[in-house]
Amino acid sequence: MQKSYRAPNPGDKRQWFIVDAANQPLGRLAVVVANKLRAKDLPTFDPSVDAGAFVVVVNAAQVKLTGKKEEQKEYQRYSGYRNGLKRFTAAEMRAAHPDRVVKEAVWGMLPKNNIARKMMTRLKVFAGAEHTHAAQKPVKIEL
Question: Could you list the residue range(s) of the whole structural domain that residue 21 is in?
């Protein structure tokens, strides 16, 4: 009888990766980051096990949006109250919170469950080139 292999949770042995988002298309960047967070690039991938890595994204303010997305792409936030829906264009979002553009794109590529919410805590996005995770010695990912 064959037994199924179940990948163990890596715990403190998670890898750290760093991605430079400068002049990278937002969608292609988000795919790479989401796959690292989910551990889809590992041969032991299991959707029910949170075995993904930490990902640090730098230069999020310089990520590239193709076409007319800068003016036409909209983000929404709803407070739960009447007239509580707020809409922002990508340009407004980038001006106010450049890191949220990348976070929203990655969140859209993850499953909507408890594991994905934990994965998002391992995503560290910085608007500039400086980050606070140099002590973890992240491995650079080339796109």
Answer: 15-66+98-134
SS3 24: coil
CA torsion angle 47 48 54 55 (round to 10) = 30
What global pTM score does this model have? 0.92
Q: Is 61 within a domain?
A: yes
Q: How many CA atoms lie within 13 A of 108 on its CB side?
A: 13
pLDDT tens by residue, the chain, 143 residues: 778 877 788 888 999 999 999 999 999 999 999 999 999 999 889 898 999 999 999 999 999 999 999 999 999 999 999 999 999 999 999 999 999 999 999 999 999 999 999 999 999 999 999 999 999 999 999 98
Residue 10 placed within a domain: no
CA distances from 41 to 2, 35, 47, 117, 126 (A): 24, 6, 12, 19, 24
